[in-house]
Amino acid sequence: MDIYQFLELFVGRWRSQRSDHQFGEGNGSDVRSVIEITVLSFDDPDLINICQKHGIDPNTAIQPMKMSWEEESLSSNKPKGHALIVPIPDPSSPQKGLILTRQGKGTYELGTDEALTIQTVTSQNAIEERIWYGNPNLRFRVATLLQGDQASDRRVQSSKFYSEIRSTAPKA
Amino acid sequence: MDIYQFLELFVGRWRSQRSDHQFGEGNGSDVRSVIEITVLSFDDPDLINICQKHGIDPNTAIQPMKMSWEEESLSSNKPKGHALIVPIPDPSSPQKGLILTRQGKGTYELGTDEALTIQTVTSQNAIEERIWYGNPNLRFRVATLLQGDQASDRRVQSSKFYSEIRSTAPKA
């Protein structure tokens, strides 16, 4: 798509839904969580396990990570979980490559606009995630879920917008 | 920023706020609007006026448009307004260029990931807008407001996430 085609698609009547995120004191009623992202060592058993599952040498990964999250909730049984993020760069062009997760295998590409796009396709659905920084301590993410067996009849089901503020310095 | 630097910034503890947009029947309590985007003819007085203000030949614009919006509201006095969007491509590289609006002058760039980034800087603040399509009838936008007189001490103030569903076919 070039800029002409992109702008042509603007034209029309649209129904718009807007969520506002403020970066001051009180926020709205959206879902809030604390997320902790740590780097995995190359001998981490979870990392080795996920790479073996996909037949990939763990040493070809860059910055393998574990993301743990816990929702803020008044109940004592707070929703929480964790996920692995294992980027495997394309050797000839590291700005793109594979992302291994426990759920499956996706592709990533860092665009010229410094936004990272991750596409994960399974037999039932597809997830597209876009991640970029407002500044080094402010991260934006939009995750879009498409459902449908065939690529041709996939429909966008929902989108989630996250704004994430770093609450400690990055660990070395 | 390359992919290594991008991923390094992931690491740390983050406070996350999430807004969910569903594309079915009932939605949440966010701000909803109807937006209508139409193409302006090159002899449109508003287009000629805004181009003259910036000393730019209106015939160098591509797809000049008018965007009208009206918020859904139970009150009879519904918030509404309109804006002009006048892209002036860089002659040697049309994927980037200027965007003229009545508020000022910004720059645009369509990235390799098919997301359009628009930056508008004024003396008091800066707005960064990212726009991309989930499909030709579903548009996503994130607008981020940065405040501060100097680029060096600009702070991100707020972000707005829009998901927009086309409700009529594009006009030719």
What does this structure look like?
Two copies of one chain form a homodimer. With 172 residues, the first copy, chain A, is mainly β. Chain A has a single domain (32-165), classed as Calycin beta-barrel core domain (Lipocalin), CATH 2.40.128. Chain A is built from two helices and ten strands. Chain A has helices at 3-8, 45-53; strands at 12-22, 31-39, 65-71, 80-90, 93-100, 105-110, 116-121, 125-135, 138-147, 155-166. A nine-stranded antiparallel sheet of chain A has the order 2-3-4-5-6-7-8-9-10, with helices on one face. The longest helix of chain A has 9 residues, at 45-53. The N and C termini of chain A lie far apart (40 Å). The mean pLDDT of chain A is 87. Chains A and B meet through α1, β1, β2, β4 and β6 of A and α1, β1, β2, β4 and β6 of B. β2 of chain A pairs antiparallel with β1 of chain B.
- How many beta strands in the DSSP annotation of chain A? 10
Task: Indicate the CATH class of chain A.
Answer: Mainly Beta
Largest sheet of chain A: 9 strands, antiparallel
- How is the CATH topology of chain A named? Lipocalin
Query: How do the helices and strands follow one another from N- to C-terminus of chain A?
Result: HEEHEEEEEEEE
CATH architecture of chain A: Beta Barrel
Question: What is the strand content of chain A?
Answer: over 45%
| Cα-based radius of gyration of chain A, to the nearest Å | 18 Å
Number of domains as seen in the coordinates of chain A: 1
Number of helices of chain A: 2
- In angstroms, what separates the terminal alpha carbons of chain A? 40 Å
Q: Largest interface, by Cβ-Cβ below 8 angstroms: which chains and how many residues each? A: A-B, 85 and 85 residues
Helix content of chain A: under 10%
